[in-house]
Design brief:
single chain, five-stranded mixed β-sheet, Beta-Lactamase, membrane, 4 domains
Length: 418
């Protein structure tokens, strides 16, 4: 359970007070008890000596209060009961079912003398002392809670104000050092300066990102449009079959580059301000990429198939979905030497199955990290394809999972958000 910081400060303050005041209160009770016991023992010894030397010796009635009793082997009138005959010498306590006594035993000249004194008076004193100490302990805790609450609020007030100021900041809209000038040169001021520094770095990174986005949009899309229009003109020419095949490859590559440019631009933008793009169903996008990869799969001797049916009423960004499909199919083609690659559609998404070498559990743990390639890496890739797939899925709210065993192939499943 995570408590707010202000409550943790309050809890620490109250606990510290409880520990200190508790130890102090218990010490008072223990010291008073020891002192009281010592005083009782001295009073009882004095009363016992007085009774023996001034009363019993003169055959007189012992001058004791109503709460005290004398037993001695010197005088048959005060015969020592068997129950008290074995009491240890000195001060002790005697507990009976309905009474309790202080006892002081004195051995002198072979005679045993015992003075008993009821504890009621002392118990009342101890109970009064205990009540006072307990009341003081409770009052101390209440005062500690109130004072701790005030101190915690005082400590957290600048922190809360700083949090509000940070929430109101907007990259590109707030001037540099907008925070630190409002706070003193203490720990809170240091934190404000750290926020200012980080905000400046974010503004710089955002500016570079915006420049890059606009440069990509202008510098890459223009030559791609030229390539596309040139291909359309070449289609009208009298070309040989081999030349038309090469032209078709150029057109597919150009289309793929256009989709990648759109994908990168989408990922660089805030999802709330996404670029408008063609939307299509999973079935349509899947069929397009199956046609794109069919010949490459056949040339490698792989059995390539499309099975299942996708929902016909759900539409997605064609470029983003196509990038995910294209990367998964490319990986399956790269890592499968023989056997099959199968694209399976279902109502909520799709799965790409292959009969390649499989992926170990250690590799699966970091499979979607940038620049990570498996131990059977092929081609000249940089290990960015699956990282890109993961970013797209996270942005669109899709879920991607992988299941694989070494030498048993792999399956990448993507569940699309409707």
């Amino acid at each position: 359970m995570h408590l707010p910081f202000i409550r943790r400060i309050l809890l620490a303050y109250v606990l510290l007070t409880a520990i200190v005041s508790g130890v102090f209160s218990l010490s008072i009770v223990a010291i008073v008890h020891l002192v009281e016991e010592h005083l009782v023992a001295n009073d009882m010894l004095r009363d016992l000596n007085t009774a023996l030397q001034e009363d019993i010796a003169l055959k007189q009635q012992p001058r004791l209060d109503a709460h005290s009793q004398l037993f001695t082997t010197l005088d048959a009138r005060y015969a020592l009961p068997e129950a008290y005959a074995q009491l240890p010498e000195g001060f002790s306590e005697v507990f009976e079912p309905d009474r309790a006594f202080y006892a002081y035993t004195l051995l002198r000249n072979g005679q045993r003398h015992v003075l008993l004194q009821q504890q009621d008076e002392f118990e009342q004193r101890e109970q009064a002392l205990f009540n006072i100490v307990l009341a003081g302990f409770i009052v101390t805790l209440i005062l500690a809670w109130a004072l701790g609450w005030l101190m915690a609020r005082q400590v957290m007030r600048p922190v809360s104000r700083l949090a509000d100021d940070v929430r109101q900041l907007r990259p590109g809209q707030s001037p540099l050092h907008a925070l630190q000038r409002h706070y003193s040169a203490d720990e809170i001021g240091e934190l404000a300066r750290a926020f200012d520094t980080t905000l400046a770095q974010l503004q710089d990174a955002l500016q570079r990102e915006q420049w890059f986005t606009s440069d990509v949009s202008h510098e890459l899309r223009t030559p791609l449009m030229v390539i596309g229009s040139s291909c359309e003109l070449l289609e009208q020419s009298d070309l040989q079959p081999a030349q038309r095949n090469q032209l078709a490859r150029i057109q597919r590559a150009s289309q793929s580059m256009q989709e990648l440019v759109h994908t990168f631009l989408q990922l660089a933008r805030d999802p709330r301000h996404a670029l408008a793009n063609r939307r299509a169903t999973l079935g349509v996008v899947a069929q397009e990429h199956v046609e794109h990869w069919r010949q490459a799969m056949l040339d490698k001797g792989l059995d390539f198939s499309l099975s299942g049916h996708a929902a016909a009423d759900s539409h997605y960004d064609a470029s983003l979905l196509g990038t995910v499909l294209n990367n998964l199919l490319r990986n399956a083609w790269h890592y499968t030497e023989n056997g099959h690659v199968r694209l399976e559609l279902h109502e909520h998404g799709f799965a790409v199955h292959d009969s390649g070498g499989g992926i170990t559990a250690e590799e699966q743990a970091q499979l979607f990290e940038p620049f990570v390639r498996g131990r059977h890496a092929r081609g000249e890739g940089l290990g960015l394809g699956l990282a890109l797939v993961k970013r797209i899925c996270e942005r669109e709210g899709w879920q991607i999972e992988v299941s694989s065993q070494p030498q048993q192939g792999s399956c990448f499943s993507v569940r699309l958000k409707s």
